[in-house]
Design goal:
Structural class: alpha/beta
CATH topology of the largest domain: 2-enoyl-CoA Hydratase, Chain A, domain 1
Number of helices: 12
Mean pLDDT: 96
CATH class of the largest domain: Alpha Beta
Radius of gyration: 19 Å
Oligomer: single chain
Order of helices and strands: EEHHEHHEEHEEHHEHEHHHH
Strand order of the largest sheet: 1-2-3-4-6-9
CATH architecture of the largest domain: Alpha-Beta Complex
Helix content: 40-55%
């Protein structure tokens, strides 16, 4: 398990809270991308028995985007390696075995928006703002992540303008679960995480794999994929414990097996 400089975490029962902590604004760079990839690619080693994760940012902002100094030195020769590392960081969150809830305050722009949109759910503080400002600084990216939060017309509006849009504007499109006062942000996200974490850990892991797998599938192959995971889940004791507890009107006791 590698030591990490820019990521902090705390586990409270089945819920873990993870913070990006790269002052002053949690801008992403090679080191932070590497740590995100390492941490979310090996969650069990860091978080042990956690069943759900809240991802937040220390300081004034969730994440204010990529360190612009790295763009100044990017060229067609060194870009592929740098861009691959960013992708791998986002995919580590998206593919992590635990449900991840982004708790966004301040701004989530560029890579910050991609980090938030790589999570399963997003809760935002009042006044939080989102943007894909890549066109402002001579790069591209973020639009596909943004499409997980808003429909295509809004994606194009935000991507072409590069402007900041308040969470309140984006809320009706469904990508943001709830907007709360900033002082309630972590409490709200953790309460949502607890409502998820009451379920079997093996069921949650398969549910995450199912939801990721079907996200861009057509109806018929998507449902067939879900059924294949039902088949896999039926071999676990937790599957039987869930249905037995329901029929016996009692709380389930899950073992993760």
């Amino acid at each position: 398990m590698e030591d990490l400089t820019f990521i902090e975490w705390h586990v409270d029962g089945p819920v873990a809270t993870v913070w990006l902590n790269r002052p002053p604004v949690n801008a992403t760079d090679h080191e932070l991308y590497s740590e995100i990839r390492q941490f979310f690619g090996h969650l069990a080693a860091y978080l042990h028995d956690a069943r759900a994760v809240v991802l937040a940012g220390r300081g004034k902002h969730f994440c204010a985007g990529n360190d612009l100094g790295e763009f100044q030195t990017m060229d067609p020769d060194n870009a592929p390696e740098r861009l691959e590392l960013a992708r791998e960081a986002f995919w580590a969150i998206y593919d992590s075995p635990l449900p991840v809830i982004a708790a966004v305050h301040g701004v989530a722009v560029g890579s910050g928006l991609a980090i938030a949109a790589s999570c399963d759910l997003v809760v935002a503080a009042e006044g939080a703002r989102f943007a894909t400002p890549e066109v402002n600084v001579g790069v591209l990216g973020g639009a596909k992540h943004l499409s997980r939060l808003v429909p295509q017309g809004v994606v194009r509006l935000m991507h072409y303008t590069g402007d900041l849009y308040p969470a309140e504007t984006l809320l009706p499109y469904g990508g943001i679960v709830e907007i709360v006062p900033e002082e309630q942000l972590l409490g709200t996200a953790r309460a949502l995480a607890r409502s998820i974490a009451r379920h079997s850990p093996v069921t949650l892991e398969l549910a995450k794999r199912s939801l990721n797998g079907i996200e861009y599938m057509e109806l018929k192959p998507g449902y067939e994929f879900e059924q294949s995971l039902t088949r896999e889940l039926s071999g676990y004791a937790d599957s039987k414990e869930a249905v037995n507890a329901f029929l016996e009107h009692r709380a389930p006791v899950y073992t993760g097996r």
